[in-house]
Amino acid sequence: EPEVTQTPSHQVTQMGQEVILRCVPISNHLYFYWYRQILGQKVEFLVSFYNNEISEKSEIFDDQFSVERPDGSNFTLKIRSTKLEDSAMYFCASSPTPNYGYTFGSGTRLTVV
Amino acid sequence: GDSVTQMEGPVTLSEEAFLTINCTYTATGYPSLFWYVQYPGEGLQLLLKATKADDKGSNKGFEATYRKETTSFHLEKGSVQVSDSAVYFCALMGVFSGGYNKLIFGAGTRLAVHP
Hints:
The structure holds 2 protein chains of 2 kinds. Chain A is mainly β. Chain A has strands at about 5, 10-15, 20-25, 30-35, 45-50, 55, 65-70, 75-80, 90-95, 105, 110. In chain A, the strands form 2 sheets. In chain A, strands 2, 4, 5, 6, 9, 10 and 11 form a 7-stranded mixed beta sheet that branches. In chain A, strands 1-3-8-7 form a 4-stranded antiparallel beta sheet, with no helix packed on it. In chain A, strand 7 (about 65-70) and strand 8 form a beta hairpin. Helices cover about 0% and strands about 55% of the residues of chain B. Chain B has no helices and 12 strands. In chain B, strands 2, 5, 6, 10, 11 and 12 form a 6-stranded mixed beta sheet that branches. Chain B has a 4-stranded antiparallel beta sheet with strand order 3-9-8-7, with no helix packed on it. In chain B, strand 5 and strand 6 (about 45-50) form a beta hairpin. The interface between A and B is medium-sized, with 24 and 25 residues.
């Protein structure tokens, strides 16, 4: 069964450093998403992406965050200057159409120290 | 705005017990409803879904019925196993500004099943 692949599975970074989280969505999917889950808390929407542009973003997704689909297969989330409160599990997801259930990746656990 | 409320956990059961995890939602229009499961150390997996009122989603012995009149989508399983121990998330997908959809999750309910 096709999978969404995320790398790395775990990243530790120092506060103020830039991080890039990588995702390879399912190849025929057109809609891409990032969610995050702070430990023990709710899964929160960050951003949705379609046709090479952001279609919606949450209030969490401020100027420190950006997304990109650099080469037609990868979908990346960049955090420009990490803060302690960015520590969370970040999930990438993709779907073939807007109303279909998403397929999630297994997540990247980001720890900011 | 749209939201999902789940019963608080943890839910602790013995093997072969009956499981119910309550989920209610608030939404404009007619959202699609989902249950996702997160096993320890893993990502979110779609367990089942229902796209319209009175639909029943089912998978791996779990089922949930979309009840518009009570705005509920309770998850049930007749006989749980130790391997069902996980966190279960109820979610809705509605149509938001610009016509693009996004999933809104409940807080999750941890299920622990003991032999």
